[in-house]
Amino acid sequence: MHLLKKGSRNLQADKGCSMYKTIKYRVENGVAWLTLNRPDKLNAFTSQMNKEIRKAIKISAGSDEVRAIIITGEGRAFCSGQDLSDVDEDMNLGQMLLDDYGPMMEQLANCEKPIIAAVNGVAAGAGFSLALACDFRLVSEKASFLNAFVNIGLIPDSGNLYYLSRIVGHAKALELSILGEKVPASEAKNIGLATKVIGVDEWNEQLKAFAENIANKPTKAIGLIKRYLEASYHLSLEEYLKEAEGQRIAGLTKDYAEGVAAFTEKRKAQFIGK
Ligand code: T3D
What we know:
Layout: E1 23-28, E2 31-36, H1 47-62, E3 68-73, E4 77-79, H2 93-110, E5 115-119, E6 122-124, H3 126-133, E7 136-140, E8 144-146, H4 160-168, H5 170-179, E9 183-184, H6 185-190, E10 196-198, H7 203-215, H8 219-232, H9 237-240, H10 243-251, H11 254-264
Parallel strand pairs: 2-3, 3-5, 4-6, 5-7, 6-8, 7-10
Antiparallel strand pairs: 1-2, 8-9
Helix pairs in contact: 1-2, 3-4, 4-5, 8-10
This protein binds ligand T3D.
């Protein structure tokens, strides 16, 4: 298995949101803010929204300006999963996953920038899967998670079981998936789903601080950490120890030189993401 990243293109970050109809996108202080923007449907996914998310992630992944990505929802929800008013009984759901959700999940998994889900409200169905696919979940005290699939006779999809079992363990993943009951923010923290639970009053300030702190870390090293941690689940130890190649790459970055210089000079490192 190749652990090396495929060629990444240096795409220009899009600062405006005019090219998007179902999301909002802006870049500020090294952080790309991607806001799901269908609040009247609790930000439910449509094929269009799925495409726009993929586009924004691709742009963010390829932009030197972006060093962290934050995904959140407009209004009172994070995302309520597939728009159930946009499907019919004859639809091939498997094909829909192959065409839309699978590529989105793959793109998130291959993105070497840190991705934060800012779960401002309920995250249900594929909206829960989206939050699981992110590297961090900052959770509002009024948010909740709902593996809603079973409630409409479906199985958790969009990588849900893959990530959920890794995050909360097999037994809890099975419980949440079969019972289909809401998990409030406090329980999400207890079972390791939430990185941090944030009070409503401090929400904006803490999100910004968390994301900007991550955006100021050595971005290339973070990408390599993500890549090797994920690879570790699929490789033998012998294969995994090719991590040496990752460390070789990290050792060539300007951030490594800066990190060592800052340590010896007893000052705070100023990482530039290169
Ligand atoms: O099925 C396939 O196509 C394959 C793909 C599957 C991927 C999936 O994501 S399957 C799972 C789909 N999602 C769900 O089953 C969740 C459905 N929604 C809910 O269970 C609840 O709405 C929530 C727990 C998320 C929130 O409950 P609550 O009480 O806070 O809000 P509400 O009153 O139920 O919803 C507010 C409005 O949003 C309402 O519209 P209205 O009556 O004000 O005009 C509701 O219909 C709408 N809404 C909520 N979720 C969806 C939705 N509209 C379309 N699709 C939704 N998923």
